[in-house]
Amino acid sequence: MRGIRLFVSALLAFAVFGGAASAQNAATGFFDSATKKWVSYRLTPEAAGAIARSKYKRSVVRYRTGEKPGTIIVDTGERRLYYVLAKGKAVRYGIGVGREGFTWSGTEKITRKAKWPGWTPPPEMIRREAKKGRKLPGYVPGGPKNPLGARALYLGGTDYRIHGTNEDWSIGRAVSSGCIRMLNEDVEDLYERVGIGAKVVVL
């Protein structure tokens, strides 16, 4: 019964539909104990984004670390980013992380901050996507359609950034080429908290 209630709730709240779906659509489901079968369904990107917003809602939490206040700690396995506060607390945000083959860890510093940044795809990404039959533009100006979203925090001398996204459904997933994605309102909040030189620890 619990599985059925969850399914009905999803139908009412998130516009569930069946059949073919694009890569952005979230496949999910539940085990129906009455029929002893797995019932699968798909969510629209908008519905998946709404779920991500609810599951990864920004909050202040207790957080134990030896890092100083002002440090950013990215827990890729947990799909969370922590901005360390004083007195054993931190602001916790949901994130999207690098997909298999694009994960990384280490310590960097914020070397640049940008509002509504433009995006220039790296040459290796252009080549990689071309092999899949997808032609990337040479440059995308800042704005709502830009994949870097509302803000970007550049990490050291790398190509990696902590940035916003126009794909809310990707929060909580491993889908990027190594960058750390955040909801636009979350990266805007983090942007105002951190300065150039802030330490970033990626686990």
From TrEMBL:
Annotated signal sequence range: 1-23
Pathways per UniProt: Cell wall biogenesis; peptidoglycan biosynthesis
CDD domains with a match to the protein in the record: YkuD_like
Pfam families referenced in this protein's UniProt entry, alphabetically: YkuD
Keywords attached to this entry: Cell shape, Cell wall biogenesis/degradation, Glycosyltransferase, Hydrolase, Peptidoglycan synthesis, Signal, Transferase
Example of a GO MF term: glycosyltransferase activity
Domain L,D-TPase catalytic: 70-203
GO biological process: cell wall organization; peptidoglycan-protein cross-linking; regulation of cell shape
Residues at the catalytic site: H163, C179
Annotated Gene Ontology cellular component terms: extracellular region
SUPFAM superfamilies: L,D-transpeptidase catalytic domain-like
Similarity-based family: Belongs to the YkuD family.
Protein name stated in the entry: L,D-transpeptidase family protein
Organism (species): Stappia sediminis
